[in-house]
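This part of the workshop introduces the protein records we will be handling. An example says more than a description, so a record of this kind follows:
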Amino acid sequence: MTTRPVADTAAVRQLIYVVEDDEAVARLVVRALEEFGYPVEWFHDGSSVLRRLQTERPDLCVVDLGLPDLDGIELIRQVGALTNCGILILTGRGHTIDRVMGLELGGDDYVVKPFEPRELVARVRSILRRRGSAGQAGTTNQRRYASFIGWTLDCAANSLRAPDGAEHVLGTAETQVLRAFVERPHQILTREQLLGQRDLSPMDRSIDVRISRIRRKIEADPQNPKIIKTVYGAGYMFTAAVAWS
């Protein structure tokens, strides 16, 4: 007997864009997402989705890196500049550097072709759930600003102010990780705790990419970090004292 997917009751409010030039792949992705109740719009190239973003903002974009008119890495950069939506990278490229660059530019996760449709949906749901939880925390918890050794994280605006007053706009994924640190300083946090996922694959290096980005912003010497320390075999620890306002 075939078991039908259980639709996500919150999905009706969460619009997803699929940017994929291969029609067969796009139909597979769209069908899988729609089976779980997500409204989906499909775009065959980068220019089309950028035009659409001028009038409508999705909750998440599934972006293929191999597009006919615009490199997917560049599209991720432009989407991040226009909207704060989640980004799932869909790629057939075998080079690690492509996935790392996508995560560096604000991608939340990636799926490599060929893929299992239900795994893709699970990753989409995970991204949306993490982002939704962060939004709920912002409305129920009045602690918005976290200050540490001259830096100030604005959890609501996804921005980080340096001791000299310079403002850094953070991606959603970076904010999620940094907030996890400042909420639990002086504690060892596992990769799963920092990403908000269970049963994380040992080969998943997305957390390492995000921590590397944060270190480049706040550490005097990112190669010899003093604020975010690696606890080998266990996880990471945020060593600075934190004050909330």
Observations:
- The chain has two domains: 11-137, 142-244.
- The chain has eight helices and 13 strands.
- The first strand starts at residue 16 and ends at 19.
- Confidence is low (pLDDT under 50) at residues 135-141.
